Amino acid sequence: MSSLNLKNIYKVYPSGVTAVTDFNLDIEDKEFIVFVGPSGCGKSTTLRMIAGLEEISSGELYIDGVLVNNRAPKDRDIAMVFQNYALYPHMTVYDNMAFGLKLRKMPKPQIDQRVKEAARILGIEMYLSRKPKALSGGQRQRVALGRAIVREPKVFLLDEPLSNLDAKLRSQMRTEITKLHNRLATTFIYVTHDQVEAMTMGTRIVVMKDGFMQQVDTPINLYDYPINQFVAGFIGTPQMNFFTGKLTGTKTKVYVEFGMDKILLPKEKVNLIVNLDKYLNTDKEIVFGIRPEDFHDEEAWVNDAKKQTIEVKVDVVEALGSETLLYCKTRSEVAPDDGETIKSIVDDVSNLTAKVDSRSVTKAGDTVKIAIDVDHCHIFDKDTEVTILARSEENKADIEALQAKREEEAAAKAAEEAAKLAEQEAKAAAEAEKQRLKMEKKLAKKNKQAADAPVEEAATEEAPAEETKED
Ligand code: ADP
Q1: What is the pTM of this model?
Q2: Mean pLDDT, the chain, whole residue set
Q3: Tens of pLDDT along 22-66?
Q4: How far is the CA of 440 from the centre of ligand 1 (A)?
Q5: Among the listed residues 201, 179, 175, 176, the one whose alpha carbon sits nearest the alpha carbon of residue 190
Q6: What is the DSSP letter of 32?
Q7: What is the residue with the minimal CA distance to atom 24 of ligand 1?
Q8: Which residues of 275-284 are buried (b: 16+ CB within 10 A; e: fewer)?
Q9: How far is the CA of 39 from the centre of ligand 1 (A)?
Q10: Same domain for 264 and 178
Q11: Residue 361 domain flag
Q12: 270 lies in which domain range?
């Protein structure tokens, strides 16, 4: 049982790569925290810094209020489970699990009791005398978990532990690890690139990108209130639909216009837009986000929500049994049906995915009306990619501050790039001038040489030419 505090943690590898930037997180006792993000975003590095396997470049790490930056891994009271199991092939399952305890000189009866208890929890009692090579992937992963459990650590760190398992086993082990967390009532920190694992297992999720934390929240809040377009697109399958557009209308009747479509926003949403004036009837673009399940092709929806209905051409229908996916094109994307347009199959990409009821009668090739459940829509600033819709009135100031911060960063970056460009141009101009002067000097020297040449010599040189002329 333990709490962790990570304060302004940075990791800069000797190669110069900044893998983690300003990581701040307070983890409470018994939480199941998941670090999720695409490959290379700094998840494993953060976990390894917590484990003590990687030095913290700057910042502070506290376990139960004690600064542990300089503590060796074995003194941090944590156990780590790796993706590749890291079992000793020549030892039996029992010995693999007992090994760490033997090193710590724990009395044999106590080791025996712990190994047997862990084996019972994980359902691997019958394999205790087998060697790892005689086990399946799932069984090996259980042994790796067992080896961590017997240590009764304060914190469990799991680095992509299910990545080597097939899909079915992975979903089975997912629920087993969740049950294990409930049973052990210990703090778990779990790294994965799989958003389904994150959503189903975590009590809180940390979404990372390029070494930066994007958002820390409960699974449902991440889904309903993504702070930016990256989080919105990363969490949820199929991914959220994005349409670039503008806000038009009046302060009481705000429309989202995108492509050839126009949608009326409900008042409750409009009231939550941060800095509406900045976007309303201006050149500033927004990105309108709709999750696939927030499109409806049922007649009742289409009739009830006329001002939130758009027309789409259905390209492909995927009936999955429990639900049906419609891959469609919005009107602006539909090519003129003049028989002349030659469309490449590769370019022919649908720009809207709707998840509708499996009883839907919509067919491929249909042009249909679909209603948008605007109560669940998302709106992002096109430039900063941060949401402009607050969760609540109280949340508006935070969003405004984040927008301002991102704008400042973008301005600083643009200024830096402009300065770099100016420097490059100045360098190129200086080089060109240098070359010009060099050429000028060379020419002057040549001219001087020609002018200084003895007259007779010039005459002899000219003489044969005259001779040729005479010939
Ligand atoms: P993730 O776990 O999210 O896939 P990592 O934490 O492994 O990402 O890596 C984050 C970044 O740090 C990547 O750009 C990676 O190339 C770099 N990195 C990881 N380990 C090292 C290392 N030992 N030396 C230099 N760079 C590293």
Answers
A1: 0.84
A2: 90
A3: 999 999 999 999 999 999 999 999 999 999 999 999 999 999 999
A4: 53
A5: 201
A6: E
A7: 13
A8: eeeebbeeee
A9: 9
A10: no
A11: yes
A12: 233-389
